[in-house]
Amino acid sequence: MPKMAELQGSAQYRERMALPDDAILDVYLQDVSQQDATTVVGAQEITPVGPPPVDFAIPYDPKRIDPDRRYAVRATISVADQPLFATPESFPVLTQGSPDRADLLLQRADGGAAATGLAGRSWWLGALNGQEVTGTANVPHLVFDDSEGRFHGSGGCNRIGGSYALAGDAGELDIGQIVSTKMACPDEGRPTEQEFLDALARANGYRIEGRELHLTGDGVELTFIERTP
């Protein structure tokens, strides 16, 4: 057996969300000297992935490294063979002045946003400040659309909508002006529609834990559960 070396590094993503237990991080050390072909020199699979940053150490045979060739690292996080996050471009390493460590920032892969991120999922209110929703015939719910930067849903009686943006560091949320229809609604159950709207307007952060979305702000926390629309 050849004496193996290790290329160490870390992989992280900026979304504040907990990955499912079956998420897999695959990291590849590749020879990218030829523009139309790559050769895998070393690889590592990590599962469960755990919270970022995730440390890795790719084993490889140092005798396969040619100082005149170019090498790079790529990574993906996938669930059930569907990519959720990926490196947008390869990270050069080892030769021609490149570092011998790879600290990678992964971005959402195409198709991953609807499955794991804020957008494309139907979020139904489960609790406001720890108090479960009670006695409400129509539960408040939200759907976010990344392509337009808007959300729509229900306050429990009236249809609502507005704009939003993911701002600054990961987990920061900017809710714009909330618009609503003007139907007269009985204040049955808790929270009332007005209590929900007041809390939503104060939300300035979010995190996703599996099928739960938490919107947080000054003195408020709204807990939503993902449901089939």
Helix-strand blueprint:
Blueprint (H helix, E strand, L loop, with lengths): L4 E9 L3 E2 L5 E11 L2 E10 L7 E7 L10 E9 L2 E5 L4 E3 L7 E8 L3 H5 L5 E7 L2 E2 L8 E5 L4 E5 L4 E8 L6 E8 L12 H10 E7 L2 E6 L2 E8 L2
Parallel strand pairs: 1-9, 2-16
Antiparallel strand pairs: 1-5, 3-4, 3-6, 6-7, 6-8, 7-9, 10-11, 10-12, 10-18, 12-13, 13-14, 14-15, 16-17, 17-18
Output the keywords.
229 residues, ten-stranded mixed sheet, 18 strands, 7% helix
Describe the structure.
The model is unreliable at 111-116 (pLDDT under 50). The strands form two sheets. Strands 2, 10, 11, 12, 13, 14, 15, 16, 17 and 18 form a ten-stranded mixed sheet that branches. The protein has two helices and 18 strands. Helices cover 7% and strands 52% of the residues.
Task: Kindly summarize this structure in a few lines.
The protein is mainly β. Helix content is 7%, strand content 52%. Strand 13 and strand 14 form a beta hairpin.
